[in-house]
């Protein structure tokens, strides 16, 4: 609405004068004429604009002149109602109701009072759209619920009380659908209701026993009559029961089990669409919440529901056909660009994505639109346009209905009606209003056309390019023709490609597909073949994607996803062609196909704070006790983000160091939430553990990362080297209902964390966890106190364990304990050591590793004959490789950090080498050589991992790097002495 009203048009002056004269005459007849001057100035100022707009308000004031004074009592026209106030007002009106006729009269007069109040506040701009729709919905809620409660009590007196099989009294549940369910009721809306009751049983205490269903049918009939039947006072709300199972031919009331069985076995897609907005508006709220929880799996599929697209497209086409009917174009709800199309846009995304994204499981359309923008389903600009258009259209709808309290969304065709609507909406004339209305509707229609558009709609050619492949897939071509088509399309080995296609057709999964799934496969495969032919290597693209197609054959919604989103199919082919590792990951976990829908997001992994916040937000949407869904969410988060990192690495938009950073940040975000979930579960079961001083621990626990995760160098498929440390009192008991000793608490906490990380679900495991670096290895305690960890490191740890400590850092957990761990690490690593003895110990350990893990030709390390193409180079273990660089860095930290504590600042090799250069301990050119070699080796290892190949390259690769590393090794670390080393 505009912010101020224009001057009253001349055409409306007679209407206003007529209404004012009638009201004053009625007031005079009622003996109230002398009281008119007592009405407030604000009322007197607002009265003309309300009467000029609304014949309904004028008629109510004429019939009951005292209504004006009642409305001004307690400032009802000038303020918003607070929560529960409308219910209190109706309860006051109904407190002495004696029979159903009086109930009907009181309800109708209550509705008249508040209808006038709501229209008045809407037309005078005192109330915004959200308040108007909320007040109307609240009025419906309290009228339905208070009428139900009165009628329930009376019906129990007459027929007995309905009870469950174990004798518990039962109430009905009244579901409000549509705009009522979403708190979006309009001024003259019907209310769509569904009646239900918890379980079969019989009435008790009546003259004869009735089934619960019969009792609630009679009660439902009385409730409908109390609200819907026209009397001299009008009606309360028109009630529509056609959304119940089987519509008008179905029973008026169903048990919960009957409803669940109906929706599971016979529920149609339009019923899912309608059920999105279902809300308990009256009756037993607690039982109603249970009912909605039972029905939620019907409404929201567990994962992405692209199978709903066909139904939504049919509904969209029905809307478009209906719009074309004569006369509907001037309907602001049903016409092109109308209210219904905005609602369709929001609810389409809810049906498709709402099963996995719980933020979309809400009712009000404006809130849904904001979520679509916040979660990147729609551009923010589109949501802003749709929201503004929706508000304007709803304001227009209210203006149309305020005139005569009539359920209409049709624009007026007469000059008086047009002038009235323009005036109420703040426009100088009809032309300026209509220009704005057309602008908003064109905006909505444009966005509506883009929702679930048919991927073939925009094809300029008579046949889409993929249509050429249909005969080959359907088998109507003979083998020679099929091979010719494949060859002409660019397949190098047409025979192998055809064999793979025939193998897919003959596979058990395809043969056992149901009719609908097979139809989807037949629609999809020509698209796949056409797009595969566009790839640089069609043979490779087809070879790597077909296993995915076979894997999802029985979950054909994924085929719909790729059919409906050609850009996603193209991204899939590009990524699978580039990396068999990615192809395998998507085949194993096809749920991540959703990530291909947004190429901009796919190739832009988020920053660490964004990662942590995204995961936190996703888990907040899941009930705390739903551990299964929490674990699935963690796994999807990891799969999705690792796919994004790999895609960015392949595209060249993410350099090696950033790849490792992101993979490490993903692990940290997951560990943070796993620790939080495990801690919450343990504390809820056993209470909080104690510290040595008797105070209670607030998660005095840290997860320490070693190796690649500690050094911020995770790769694809890396496991996590972890150590758990706590700072509680091992002997003191927890303070919960089932107390246990602190040592047991922290051990079970560690076990819980490992279980959450290691457990195989349908989405795989999160991470493989290696705990062998803890004190005493596999024979040591799973979780160490900081005191015992410190004692071990100071008194018992071997040199290789101190080497490992160089790359150790707290990942998640208690900040205070993390600081103490860091101080202990600095103390242990910074002690003075005999450099020669240390060098020999490090060299001895390295030689053992080469002997056991390196390639046989280069185990000795320095022979130039090994640097030939015929002999492989193990990037990690062979002489001059990754581990040599790591060992040199670790030796340098252990030998020199006693004098140069800045060497302890970082845990990753690249930055430690920078510090060695800054301290003047290694020459700049040598540091540069080591860093470049290290990055080159790791980049090659990453590329090989994405190709599912071992970390070995031709022996003549990296010749200069290897020579340089070996030369520096020989300078820093002399050959080990014969015999055992410590």
Automatic annotation (TrEMBL):
Q: Which catalytic reaction applies to this protein?
A: [glutamine synthetase]-L-tyrosine + ATP = [glutamine synthetase]-O(4)-(5'-adenylyl)-L-tyrosine + diphosphate; [glutamine synthetase]-O(4)-(5'-adenylyl)-L-tyrosine + phosphate = [glutamine synthetase]-L-tyrosine + ADP
Quote any Pfam family the record assigns. Answer: GlnE
Q: Which SUPFAM superfamilies does this chain map to? A: Nucleotidyltransferase (SSF81301), Nucleotidyltransferase substrate binding subunit/domain (SSF81593)
Stretches assigned to the PII-uridylyltransferase/Glutamine-synthetase adenylyltransferase domain: 314-451, 873-948
Checking InterPro entries in the record gives: GlnE, GlnE_rpt_dom, NT_sf, PII_UdlTrfase/GS_AdlTrfase
**Where do the segments described as Adenylyl transferase lie?**
464-982
Domain (Glutamate-ammonia ligase adenylyltransferase repeated) spans 45-292, 571-822
Name what cofactor the protein needs: Mg(2+)
Instruction: Mention one GO molecular function.
Output: [glutamine synthetase]-adenylyl-L-tyrosine phosphorylase activity
EC number(s) reported in the record: 2.7.7.89, 2.7.7.42
Swiss-Prot/TrEMBL keywords: ATP-binding, Ligase, Magnesium, Multifunctional enzyme, Nucleotide-binding, Nucleotidyltransferase, Transferase
Note down the stretches annotated as region Adenylyl removase: 1-456
The entry assigns this protein to a family as follows: Belongs to the GlnE family.
Function recorded in the entry: Involved in the regulation of glutamine synthetase GlnA, a key enzyme in the process to assimilate ammonia. When cellular nitrogen levels are high, the C-terminal adenylyl transferase (AT) inactivates GlnA by covalent transfer of an adenylyl group from ATP to specific tyrosine residue of GlnA, thus reducing its activity. Conversely, when nitrogen levels are low, the N-terminal adenylyl removase (AR) activates GlnA by removing the adenylyl group by phosphorolysis, increasing its activity.
Instruction: Report the PANTHER family cross-referenced here.
Output: BIFUNCTIONAL GLUTAMINE SYNTHETASE ADENYLYLTRANSFERASE_ADENYLYL-REMOVING ENZYME (PTHR30621:SF0), GLUTAMINE SYNTHETASE ADENYLYLTRANSFERASE (PTHR30621)
Which protein, by its recorded name, is this?
Bifunctional glutamine synthetase adenylyltransferase/adenylyl-removing enzyme
Annotated gene:
glnE
């Amino acid at each position: 609405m505009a912010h101020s009203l224009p001057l009253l048009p001349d055409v409306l002056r007679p209407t206003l004068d007529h209404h004012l004269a009638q009201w004053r005459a009625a007031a005079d007849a009622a003996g109230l004429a002398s009281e008119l001057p007592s009405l407030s100035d604000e009322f007197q100022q607002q009265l003309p604009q309300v009467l000029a707009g609304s014949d309904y308000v004028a008629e109510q004031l004429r019939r009951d002149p005292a209504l004006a004074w009642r409305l001004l009592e307690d400032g009802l026209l000038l303020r918003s109602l607070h929560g529960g106030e409308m219910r209190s007002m109706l309860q006051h009106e109904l407190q002495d109701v004696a029979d159903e006729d009086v109930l009907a009269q009181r309800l109708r007069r209550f509705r008249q009072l508040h209808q006038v109040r709501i229209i008045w506040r809407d037309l005078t701009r005192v109330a915004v759209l959200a308040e108007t729709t909320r007040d109307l919905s609240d009025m419906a809620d309290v009228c339905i619920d208070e009428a139900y409660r009165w009628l329930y009590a009376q019906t129990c007196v007459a027929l007995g009380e309905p009870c469950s099989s174990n004798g518990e009294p039962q109430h009905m549940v009244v579901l409000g659908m549509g705009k009522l369910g979403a708190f979006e009721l309009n001024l003259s809306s019907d209310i769509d209701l569904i009646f239900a009751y918890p379980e079969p049983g019989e009435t008790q205490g009546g003259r004869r026993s009735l089934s619960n269903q019969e009792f609630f049918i009679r009660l439902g009939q009385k409730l409908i009559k109390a609200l819907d039947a026209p009397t001299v006072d009008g009606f309360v709300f028109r009630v529509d029961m056609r959304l119940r199972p089987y519509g008008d031919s179905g029973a008026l009331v169903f048990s919960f089990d009957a409803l669940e069985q109906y929706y599971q076995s016979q529920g149609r897609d339009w019923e899912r669409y309608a059920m999105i907005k279902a809300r308990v508006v009256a009756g037993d709220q607690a039982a109603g919440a249970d009912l909605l929880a039972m029905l939620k799996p019907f409404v929201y599929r567990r994962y992405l529901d692209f199978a709903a697209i066909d139904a939504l497209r049919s509904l969209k086409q029905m809307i478009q056909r209906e719009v074309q009917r004569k006369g509907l174009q001037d309907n602001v709800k049903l016409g092109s660009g109308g209210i219904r199309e905005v609602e369709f846009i929001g609810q389409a995304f809810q049906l498709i994505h709402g099963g996995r994204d719980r933020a979309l499981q809400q009712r009000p359309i404006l809130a849904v639109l904001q979520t679509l923008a916040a979660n990147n389903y729609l551009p923010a600009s589109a949501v802003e346009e749709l929201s503004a258009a929706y508000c304007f259209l709803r304001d227009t709808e209210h203006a149309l209905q305020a005139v005569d309290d009539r359920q209409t969304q049709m624009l007026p065709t007469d000059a008086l009606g047009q002038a009235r609507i323009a005036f109420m909406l703040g426009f100088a004339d009809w032309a300026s209003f209509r220009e704005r209305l057309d602008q908003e509707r064109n905006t909505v229609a444009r966005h509506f056309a883009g929702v679930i558009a048919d991927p073939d709609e925009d094809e300029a050619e008579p046949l889409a390019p993929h249509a050429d492949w249909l005969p080959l897939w359907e088998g109507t071509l003979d083998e020679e023709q099929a091979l010719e088509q494949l060859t002409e399309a660019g397949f190098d080995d047409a025979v192998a490609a055809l064999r793979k296609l025939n193998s897919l057709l003959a596979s058990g999964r395809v043969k056992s597909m149901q009719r609908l799934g097979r139809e989807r496969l037949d629609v999809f495969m020509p698209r796949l073949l056409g797009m595969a032919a566009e790839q640089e290597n069609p043979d490779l693209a087809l070879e790597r994607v077909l296993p995915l197609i076979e894997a999802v054959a029985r979950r054909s919604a994924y085929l719909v996803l790729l059919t409906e989103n050609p850009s996603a199919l193209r991204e899939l082919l590009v990524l699978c062609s580039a990396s068999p590792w990615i192809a395998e990951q998507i085949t194993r976990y096809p749920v991540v196909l959703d990530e291909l829908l947004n190429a901009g997001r796919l190739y832009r992994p988020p920053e660490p704070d964004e990662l942590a916040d995204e995961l936190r937000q996703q888990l907040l949407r899941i009930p705390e006790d739903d551990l299964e869904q929490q674990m699935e969410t963690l796994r999807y988060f990891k799969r999705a983000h690792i796919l994004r990192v790999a895609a960015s690495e392949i595209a060249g938009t993410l350099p090696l160091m950033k790849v490792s950073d992101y993979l490490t940040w993903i692990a940290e975000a997951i560990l943070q939430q796993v620790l939080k979930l495990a801690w919450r579960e343990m504390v809820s079961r056993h209470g909080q553990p104690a510290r040595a001083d008797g105070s209670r621990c607030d998660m005095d626990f840290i997860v320490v990362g070693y190796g690649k995760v500690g050094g911020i160098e995770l790769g694809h498929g890396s496991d996590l080297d972890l150590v758990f440390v706590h700072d509680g009192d091992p002997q003191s008991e927890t303070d919960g209902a089932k107390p246990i000793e602190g040592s047991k608490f922290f051990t079970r906490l560690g076990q819980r964390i490992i279980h959450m990380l290691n457990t195989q679900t349908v989405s795989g495991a999160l991470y493989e966890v290696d705990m062998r670096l803890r004190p005493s290895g596999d024979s040591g305690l799973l979780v160490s106190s900081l005191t015992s960890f410190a004692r071990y490191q100071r008194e018992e740890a071997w040199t290789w364990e101190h080497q490992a400590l160089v790359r150790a850092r707290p990942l998640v957990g208690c900040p205070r304990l993390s600081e103490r761990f860091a101080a202990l690490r600095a103390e242990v690593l910074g002690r003075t050591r005999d450099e020669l003895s240390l060098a020999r110990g490090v060299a001895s350990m390295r030689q053992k590793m080469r002997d056991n893990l390196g390639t046989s030709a280069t185990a000795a390390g320095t022979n130039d004959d090994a640097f030939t193409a015929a002999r492989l180079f193990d990037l990690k273990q062979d002489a001059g490789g990754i581990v040599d660089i790591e060992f040199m860095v670790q030796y340098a930290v252990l030998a020199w950090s006693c004098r140069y504590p800045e060497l302890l600042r970082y845990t990753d090799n690249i930055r430690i080498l920078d510090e060695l250069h800054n301290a003047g301990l290694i020459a700049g050119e040598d540091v540069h050589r080591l860093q470049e070699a290290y990055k080159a080796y790791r980049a090659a290892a990453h590329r090989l991992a994405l190709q599912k190949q071992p970390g070995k390259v031709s022996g003549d690769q990296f010749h200069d790097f290897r020579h340089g590393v070996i030369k520096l090794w020989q300078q820093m670390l002399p050959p080990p002495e014969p015999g055992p080393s410590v």
